[in-house]
Amino acid sequence: xxxxxxxxxxxxxxxxxxxxxxxxxxxxxxxxxxxxxxxxxxxxxxxxxxxxxxxxxxxxxxxxxxxxxxxxxxxxxxxxxxxxxxxxxxxxxxxxxxxxxxxxxxxxxxxxxxxxxxxxxxxxxxxxxxxxxxxxxxxxxxxxxxxxxxxxxxxxxxxxxxxxxxxxxxxxxxxxxxxxxxxxxxxxxxxxxxxxxxxxxxxxxxxxxxxxxxxxxxxxxxxxxxxxxxxxxxxxxxxxxxxxxxxxxxxxxxxxxxxxxxxxxxxxxxxxxxxxxxxxxxxxxxxxxxxxxxxxxxxxxxxxxxxxxxxxxxxxxxxxxxxxxxxxxxxxxxxxxxxxxxxxxxxxxxxxxxxxxxxxxxxxxxxxxxxxxxxxxxxxxxxxxxxxxxxxxxxxxxxxxxxxxxxxxxxxxxxxxxxxxxxxxxxxxxxxxxxxxxxxxxxxxxxxxxxxxxxxxxxxxxxxxxxxxxxxxxxxxxxxxxxxxxxxxxxxxxxxxxxxxxxxxxxxxxxxxxxxxxxxxxxxxxxxxxxxxxxxxxxxxxxxxxxxxxxxxxxxxxxxxxxxxxxxxxxxxxxxxxxxxxxxxxxxxxxxxxxxxxxxxxxxxxxxxxxxxxxxxxxxxxxxxxxxxxxxxxxxxxxxxxxxxxxxxxxxxxxxxxxxxxxxxxxxxxxxxxxxxxxxxxxxxxxxxxxxxxxxxxxxxxxxxxxxxxxxxxxxxxxxxxxxxxxxxxxxxxxxxxxxxxxxxxxxxxxxxxxxxxxxxxxxxxxxxxxxxxxxxxxxxxxxxxxxxxxxxxxxxxxxxxxxxxxxxxxxxxxxxxxxxxxxxxxxxxxxxxxxxxxxxxxxxxxxxxxxxxxxxxxxxxxxxxxxxxxxxxxxxxxxxxxxxxxxxxxxxxxxxxxxxxxxxxxxxxxxxxxxxxxxxxxxxxxxxxxxxxxxxxxxxxxxxxxxxxxxxxxxxxxxxxxxxxxxxxxxxxxxxxxxxxx
Length: 983
Description:
Number of helices: 33
CATH class of the domain at 606-814: Alpha Beta
Helix content: 25-40%
Distance between the termini: 65 Å
Strand order of the largest sheet: 30-29-28-31-32-33-38
Number of strands: 41
CATH superfamily of the domain at 606-814: NAD(P)-binding Rossmann-like Domain
Largest sheet: 7 strands, parallel
Structural class: alpha/beta
């Protein structure tokens, strides 16, 4: 093994002028990073730093932090990261515990740290770095067994524990990451974690070892979904080594709700800190990251950041609740050990013991805790120094060798990715004057762990005073968000506090962050909304300018608030709470909506026919070879399969290095078979010139095909215009270049009935109805639909250049007519969520709506039938069911399946599904209902009768009890719906 410095020296030699770090608009090259860190090393040595001494870094996360880390290691020191946002007492304890006589800081932080140290402390201010002399330093006495850093984790005594980590552990971890994650100097790695948290090792050293660029995301960006995602897109981030699981959950939900495509350039995402649920992993893979390598990471600070790593597959089984944490990484040996000290059998729960190259030398100045946690290896005394670490985590080894996390053995938990000891918080609470006894437990709210504290006292204590006391010694993530004063602490038969009983006991929310002065309501609307907030959040001292999420709000609370407001203020949606955040902003939105007024629904249907009517006068050539895009999607995969059944050769254009595997996985999932020999997979990218192929390869591809079915598109309904145009418009134009090379190719473009639906909704249907070509200047508000309509017009205009082009507007595609099978992300589909909501809630709204749902196998048959015809007579087709049933008829069928659903008035229905008697699952499903994805009055009927007549399709699926039963039985089979249906 090379040392950290030898590896870094090699990187500097190879990538001297490459950008090493970027922070905002500031950058530094590897050459400059080497020179600046040399200055620090030289300064420390001139001030008498001896090898193995500790040097504290008291800086905000910055470029200067990385320079300091390298400089300290170069000087033979051990770096000690302090967080200026942590309490003074905590940082003071760490400085004293490490006896740091050298501290690196900045001018603006100098005053705050001077009170924590002795008079003999040497301060190096980063502002003075430029005045230091440039030096070249050669290091010959560094060793892989030298200490690299000490990171402090929460301790049971009330004081944190300093974990001593050697270079050996860092080097072993980097060797794994660079090889297995294929990290190169061309990557841009996001630096996310604070440097007082060991996850910072992953991103920082992976970058310094590979010559990649390390992008330091600022604190504002790392605290908000919008900021985080904007950095990914703006900076072309390719690797995100470790996001806290809780924040990752927020990101996935945010992206899904807005249907954004931000992760296109990202190769790798790692998550760590909490149990990763199968639902969250599947949601990420199915709707955001099939092309992304996605890792669930696990590892204590005591064994150098991570010791296991599980790569989440695209088709993670629906049966998986807790995503495995993986298997032993190189340089690591894991044991699952029973209470009797024996290695557990497969699927037997035991404590995880870890032997590793990266094992800590123990806790600084804490012999008792070191001997408790670090023991001689009773199983393999000759590996990794003969020691192992008892993690305190309960796990089990699965049959495939992977390990699954079960729970903590003691009271140690992770909150927002930070590992803490409950005992430390309890110790600090017990130190507060007036508190006799305190117990802290964990409560899970909306999937996120929070802390609630219970205490006894002989007097009435103010929650605010307790919070202010705790702020002196504890970081914000360790302060309980709920408190409760009780008469006595309940005890279990063991004599210990009955934590299970306290977990069930409700406590009162405390406000940790507020805007300051309380602003009272200034009108009736603000008063009504604020009253709902107070009632649901159980808070009094809040005003109309307070941020909902700073005072304890979350999605379930929002639903409860909305249930109190919806009857009177019907235009407020779930999305508004996330976008507007304050009572003041919500009230302004209500007033604006009232001024616009509501459109009266006319109870009559409009037949949206396949306009423009464009005749085809030429006979089309026979088709033998077809290029299909979007073939790993629901529609594209079924079109490809249907073409193969018809004996045609099929070429699939698929993005990514794992293109072949993605096709194989898709075919296996939908059709349970291997990829046909009649299918050829070509790796390409619609957004690139020549589809990312060489020019000769592109021309050769054009010469080989008779037809193109362009099914690929970004079908999400929210996002920025530039992105949608790049995929839906420019991507279409790029694939059409094949026709310009070979004009004999017939181009079949997949679009959406949303084009005609949105025109109708905005009163513009008359501009298209009766036309023989797409009119100029048509537009709709939805960016997604508008770009699909632009692409339609661009394609259809090619008919004027004697190109053979066709457009297929697809309706709402649902499970196969043959067996009801649907795509894997069923939980994100509005139609299925609507069905589940009505089944669980036992009620449905009275609406006038012809429900559009078309079996995927029938839809693919319609498209392929047209593609293979040589005598088509029209260019625009509607691929939707020609005989849609009314919503009332759908409910009647569900009742035939014994679901007993009652239809009630829309206003009563909205109030009902948000009422207190509804389960949390129903309320969560109601979110989509409230935002317009459920059953609503609609004039639109997607007329496909001409399509069926022209294509001579007579075997139309019947939307009856048998078929709808298949749809629901599939939903049951994958665990989406729990009830049994007799179809």
